[in-house]
Amino acid sequence: MQTAIENKINVSINGRDFEAKQGESVLRLAKRNGIHIPTLCHHEDLCISGNCRICVVEVEGRRTLQTSCSTPVAEKMVIRTNTRKVRKTRQMLIELLLAEHVGDCQTCRRNLNCELQDLAAEYGVEEVRFGKSREKRCEIDALTPVVRDNDKCVLCRRCTQVCEEIQGVEAIKPVGRGKDTEICSLFSVPLDETTCVFCGQCINRCPTAALTERDATKDVWKAIDDPEKHVVVQTAPAIRAALAEAFDVPPGERVTGKMAAALKMLGVDTVFDTDFTADLTIIEEGTELLTRLKKALVEKSEVSLPMFTSCSPGWINYIEHYYPELLDHLSTCKSPQQMFGALIKSYYAQKKGIDPANVVSVSVMPCTAKKYEADRPEMIDSGYKDVDYVLTTRELARMIKQSGIDLMTLEDADFDDPMGISTGAGVIFGATGGVMEAAIRTAYELVTGREVPFQNLDIKPVRGMEGIREASLVITDPVPEWGFLDGAEVKVAIAHSLTMAKELMNKVRDGEAPYHFIEIMACPGGCLGGGGQPIPTSPEIRQKRAQAIYTEDGAMKLRKSHENPAVKFLYENFLGEPNGHKSHELLHTRYTPKGNW
C-alpha cells in the first residue's frame, strides 16, 4: 500500500500513477514501486554517474531517451520503461559493451555472477554485430591481492568511484579519452607501487571480472592433498554471516556449524575459530590501553593517545601511507588472523608434537587486504610465516562447490580444541563497532571488578553504520590497581571506511580529538562489508549480515572475552601474563612509514 508523501509529485510510469518524492530519480521511484529498470554503472553505495546508459527510458515531450538514474522526476511526468525504442537501445548498448569485452564466460571467475552476462541474457543478445575482439590486449596485473584485467573492463567507473568516494585513496583513475579510455593507476604503474590499500572494495563493486582477488585455492588444495602436511584453518567471524549468500541463500543466514562441517569434509586436519584470537586481542589490546592511560595519568609520561585499533590490514596500509606520523598511536597488537597464525606455528604445533615446518596455516577471511598482511615481513615471529595462505569467503565457497558439498544440508559441526572456544565478544568483531564493544565489556570489569549486567552487554552507542560514532564511559569506584581512573571519562570513537578514518585522523593530527581509544575498520560496515565477501554488496545486505552477527552474540553463553576458558588456559600454560614477554614476542608488532605517492 502506498503511503502519502510530503511534497508529492504525481508521475506516470507505464500507464500507472505514482506519488514521487521531490528530487527523487526516475530509477529510484521505479525501484521503490517494483518496476525493473536494468542498470550497470549504478550502485547503491555510489554517487550517480550515468556512464553506461543501460537504464534509459522514454519521457514524454523529450526528444532523446533519458538515463533514469540521473533524471529527476517532475510533476505530471509520463515515463515509459519498456517501449521498443528503449529495448532496442539497451540491446545495442549491451552489444557495444560485449564488443569491447575480451574473454570467455565459461572460464571466467565471475561466470553466472556477472552483471554484463545477466544483461546479455535478459535482452536476448545472442550475437555481437560490432566485431567482438577475441585477442587479449592488456597485461593482467596479478602482483598484488587485487588482480586487474582491463580486457574485461566495461568502463562503468564503479571501481574508481568507490576508491575515491568511500575510501578516499584514488589509487586508480580513468585515463585517456574516448575509445582510448582505460582504468589504471598513475603512469600505469603496478598497484603495489601505488597507495592502494588492497581493501578490495573495487572488486565488490565491479560488475564483471575486470577486478578479482589473487586466487589461493590451488595452493590450499595442494596442501590438503599432501599427506606430509598438517593443514589448519581458521575462519573469521564475518564469514559465518555471508558464506550462505554464495549458495543463493538470502543475506543474514548464519552457517557457523555448517561452515565448520564443510571445511572438515574438504579434508583439512583442524578447524579453528578466529574469534578465539579476537578474544585474545581484547585482552592484549585492553591491557595495552590501560597501560598507556596509567603512564599518561600517573607517571605523566609522554605516550601516544588516543590509541588506534590494529585489526584491519587495509587501515594499517592506509595509515602507513597517509599518516605515518601517527603510527605510534596504533596498538602494537597483531590482527586476530596473525595472532592465530603465530600460535598455530608455536603453541599448537608444540602441543600436537608436529614439526611447524609441516604445518600449513590457512585463514578464511572477508578481506583481500588480509592476503597482503599475511605476506608482510613482520609476520614471522614464530620462526615461520604465521599464515601461509588466505582464502576469501568467495574462494572458500568455490572450494565447497568444487567438492560437490551441499552446504545448506550439512549437519552442524563444532570447531576443534584447543582453540575452538570463543565468546560473543569475538563474534561481533565482524561488525563495525564490534571491537570497541568487546573492549568495553572487558575493560569495565577489569577496572571496576564488577560484572557488566547481562542486559547491558548490548552497547548500542557503538553499534550502527551511520557515520562516525562516539561514546564515553565514566569510571566509578574502580579496584585499587586502577584507582587513578576514578571519575575519569574514557571517550571512544568508531569509524568504518577510509574517508571516515581520514576525518578522525585529521582531528588527531591537529590535536582536536578528545578520545582515548579509536576503532577503525577500512571497509564499509566493517569486516561484514569486506572486499572478499560474496558479490553483490549494498547497505541493506551489510545490515542483514550485521544482524546475523549480533543474533549469534546474543545467543552465546559466554559474551565477554576475558571469560574464555581456552584463553585463560593459554595464558596459564604458554603466554604468561597479558602484554608480557612471550605475548610481545608472538602477538605484537610495529609498522613502517610508506610514501603517499
Q: Give the name of the CATH superfamily of the largest domain.
A: Fe-only Hydrogenase (Larger Subunit), Chain L, domain 3
Largest sheet: 5 strands, mixed
State the helicity in percent bands. 25-40%
User: What is the molecular shape?
Assistant: globular
In terms of quaternary structure, the protein is single chain
Q: Tally the helices: what do you get?
A: 18
Distance between the termini: 54 Å
CATH architecture of the largest domain: 3-Layer(aba) Sandwich
Mean pLDDT across residues: 94
Give the CATH class of the largest domain: Alpha Beta
What is the CATH topology descriptor of the largest domain? Fe-only Hydrogenase (Larger Subunit), Chain L, domain 3
Over the alpha carbons, how many angstroms does the gyration radius reach?
25 Å
- Beta-strand residue fraction: 5-15%
Outline the structure in words.
The chain has 597 residues and is an alpha/beta fold. It folds into 3 domains: 9-82, Ubiquitin-like (UB roll) (Roll); 92-213, Alpha-Beta Plaits, CATH 3.30.70.20; 215-398 and 423-597, Fe-only Hydrogenase (Larger Subunit), Chain L, domain 3 (3-Layer(aba) Sandwich). It has helices spanning 26-32, 84-100, 115-122, 158-166, 201-205, 217-225, 256-266, 275-297, 313-322, 336-352, 369-374, 393-402, 424-427, 434-448, 498-509, 539-555, 565-575, 581-587; strands at 9-13, 16-20, 56-59, 66-67, 77-80, 146-148, 173-175, 182-184, 211-213, 230-235, 270-273, 307-308, 359-365, 389-392, 469-474, 489-496, 517-521. The longest helix is centred in the middle third of the chain and has 23 residues, at 275-297. The protein is globular, with a radius of gyration of 25 Å.
